[in-house]
Amino acid sequence: MKRTTEDYVLDIAIYACLLVLAFVTLYPFWNSLVISFNDGNDTAAGGVTFWPRAFTLENYRYVFKDNRMIHAFWITVARTAAGTFLSILFTSMFGYAMAKRGLIGKKFYMIVCVITMYFSGGLIPSYLLIKQLHLMNTFWVLIVPGIISVWNMIIFRTFFQGLPDGLEESAKIDGCNHLSTFFRIVVPVSGPVIATLSLFTAVGHWNAWFDASIYITNSKLLPIQVILNQTVRSILAFESSTQVSATKQEFLLGLQSVTHKSVVMSTTMVATIPIVLVYPFVQKYFVKGVLVGSLKE
Amino acid sequence: MKASITTWKDEVNWLGRRFLRQWDLQIMVIPAIVLIVIFAYIPMWGVLMAFQDYNPAKGFLGSKWVGLKHFRMFFEAPEFWLIMRNTVVISLLKLLVAFPAPIVLALMLNEVRHAAFKRIVQTISYLPHFISWVIVSGFVISMLSVDNGSLNMLLQTTGLMKEPVNWLSIPEYFWTILIATGTWKEIGFGAIVYLAAIAGVDPHMYESAAIDGAGRLRQLFSITLPSITPVIVIFLILSVSQILNAGFEEILLLTNQGMNVALRPVSEIIDTYVYRVGIENYRYSYATAAGFFKGIVSVGLLVIANWIARRLGSSSLW
């Protein structure tokens, strides 16, 4: 087909817009990466944008020497692993049972679930509940309240309902109960849905900071996002302080070749890179997952 | 009379036996329901403390009931209208900018013929969705920093500005920064659903339109956009019900947990207010009242939005 002027103009405009979008999206990541590999004092002189001017690994060495950071990193890894495993385990079992026709009380259970999608107690009652349950300052406060996701349960249920009836017949004949049928027959054929929802749950845990910031004061239990936020906040406090002279002097005294900003950037990279590395590979799963989710709406 | 009692008892017995016989199914449900009851329903019941002078020492049952006192205090608070304005204005700006942005992106991506280019741009565009708000706010702070932030460097080298500006300390810029950041983070991920909807449009429609001499722009407005309208409406209803959720996390993070007092007149929304008054100042009942007010308005908005959508004859949530 012949291309008209309209086609050319449209294409140029669209490609230009998309290139700008791609640039604007990537630049903050790239610039942070560059700063994290650039000498702190050199960064402070300004002008570091696309390429490190004074390459150094010092910022990372500083981060990895800091026991607090390492510890926080492992807390994050632990909460992501345990939180994702427990959530997917209990939520998928729940979804499986809810997909069974003979389940007694199914309607009631469903109503219990759906109400939580529209109403919630809000921040303060939840906070006081956690306090009264003596979950404050425990590792489990990061995991237990989020184990059941009604949303994920519905996605699991929809998936399990779509499985062929014959699949579980042979297990029944062998005398398996529902529990062992679920683990031996159903789980192995549910790879995609388990992978998708595990990914979303894991990313949620990896990125979570608010729960830890209000429920945990013991610095030994803080995840990396909270530590990072505390570091960023100290920079903000520094920048917005009006009595610059006093703070700045104090700040400059503590400053060696590793500055505050470069440490923040290298910590940021440590917290970001696992996700950036994982997500392109699981892309096709989550695109599917989003669609399953939106179809349910 | 006697007969009916036995049948009722029989019924219960029968149901009980059946329930026990399917213990293997029930055991998969019960832990989940227990967790939901504890972590979702107890707090819902706890909302009643908005009508009390809740005292942690006396507990929920021992605290004094005070009716609507805290609601009245909230409505009469000098900051009430400011908070409401910020909540509504920020949400409306989001609805105006952040909501259509993924639709525009999906439409643009749909016009791209090079599959590889399309895939790369798409992959890049949903990267920020997976990054935490802590990190995104760190990026924003770094980009806008007065101390060699990239934006200030760009404006200075191009000669548009002589002195660096501390963008995040000036109230006039806050809404723009907030909306831009939110759009930046979610534009790509939001586009996925619309792209899928576009992919479902019957290709014959485009062919016949092309034969009738419709250009690509014409096809976009006359075929693609009308075809995905039902999806847009559903997401619009959902966004309207979210209108009082102006973005708790990002505001908290971009204002340094509310410590940036200069920004408070433009940044304080109901959620951050509840956080500040409740968690930081321990005024539990008062903060719960403010949060409860928000919850009621949100559910009301959802019902109204859904009703309007049904009235207009397009898709609705229920």
From TrEMBL, chain B:
Residue ranges of every copy of the ABC transmembrane type-1 domain listed in the record: 84-305
Subcellular location: Cell membrane
Membrane topology: Multi-pass membrane protein
PROSITE patterns in the cross-refs: ABC_TM1
Annotated transmembrane regions: 27-51, 88-109, 130-153, 173-199, 220-244, 284-309
Main location: membrane
InterPro entries: MetI-like, MetI-like_sf, UgpAE/MalFG_permease
Keywords: Cell membrane, Membrane, Transmembrane, Transmembrane helix, Transport
Protein name as catalogued: Protein lplB
Pfam families: BPD_transp_1
Entry similarity comment: Belongs to the binding-protein-dependent transport system permease family.
Organism: Gordoniibacillus kamchatkensis
